[in-house]
Amino acid sequence: MAPYESDDTTSDDTADTGRRKAARYVVPVAVVGVAAATIGLVPALADSGDPDLPKISAQQLINKIAKSDVQQLSGTVRVSTDLGLPNLGGLESGLMSGAGRGGDGSSADPASKLTELLSGSHTLRVAADGPDRQKVSLIERAAEYSLIHDGKDVWGYDSKSNEVYHGTADQDGKERREKTPATPKDFADEALKSVDDTTSVTVDGTVQVAGRDAYKLLIKPRQSGTTVGAISIAVDAKTGLPLKFTLTPASGGAAVVDAGFTQVSFAKPAASTFDFSPPRGAKVTEEDDHAAKAPGKSSPKSEEDFAKSLQGFDVLGKGWNSVAVLHSGAEAGLPSAAAGGGDLGGFLGSLGDHVTGKFGKGMVFSTRLVNALITDDGKVYVGAVDKNALVKAADAAR
Length: 398
Prior knowledge:
Elements: H1 17-32, H2 58-67, E1 72-81, H3 91-101, H4 110-113, E2 120-129, E3 133-139, E4 144-150, E5 153-158, E6 163-168, H5 184-193, E7 199-209, E8 212-221, E9 228-236, E10 242-249, E11 257-265, E12 283-286, H6 287-293, H7 303-310, E13 314-316, E14 323-327, H8 342-351, E15 353-357, E16 360-365, E17 371-375, E18 379-383, H9 387-396
Parallel strand pairs: 6-12
Antiparallel strand pairs: 1-2, 1-11, 2-3, 3-4, 4-5, 5-6, 7-8, 8-9, 9-10, 10-11, 13-14, 14-18, 15-16, 16-17, 17-18
């Protein structure tokens, strides 16, 4: 029974064990992948009072989120992420964008552009009119990137480079590419997949977000050893739409992820919001052409496909202490300066902590949320757990 700490919880709310384990791993990946420094409770998202709302149980609030059917909205979302990644002098962002572009790809490709949400603070303008029309615009200092879904067409446009990326949606109206969480609802959907008997879920009062009265849903691990401290979701009292998502680490301090509306309207957006034609002189890259240039680099077609693929990995532990075990393909593990790895070995050594155990030797690379242990025999242990938990997992798998 999922511990929603309310009287109306039923066993029907418990997810399938295999999918839950995969989803548990997807949660930190989605959060890290977004979907890494202003951080903290952004002033623009500051609460403006605690509204007096009718009492509601945690299970009732979760049901309210599940039944939410907001088809039309527009607004502004502020997303801040702070994974505590080391400063690599611009190398980090270059690697992230290059990973999605495949060398000669388009700067308008959503797979590369939306990875910018991995770090720092960003302002997004969002709009939706039913399942066939959505738009997300990433506002930059002197430019704007827009991702538009209009019927069967999916357009990405980077005003800075004047490049256009054109793809198509599948029969369900979803873009045939991986999805990066960008709105509070995206983050909330992933977090709620991870709720099980290792989780405490309660209603933590009320709040106002973007001028809307909302309930606060508080999700906290019952286990020690996880890097997740708590997840707070502000849920619109009328529509059930998540308006704000905040993930704080167990180590304390500023939030790792803070995403929330600063302005929102549930009126029907103007039809012209979703109109798009490539500007004159723009370079247009077609999805099929891009895929042909980068064979063997296809991405999961959906979050569900990604979750299913993770079930092929070994998963150690339970709940928030779950650790995924992969193989890096490097039989000798990471290069080290002592073993002749030279400058690269020294550089990697400066980023991680050397550890030993029954498993042998390895190195732990840490962020404020997801940590990874790479052993000398090439195995990789990854999870939203601390260093000691990774070492224990590696010892248990010995």
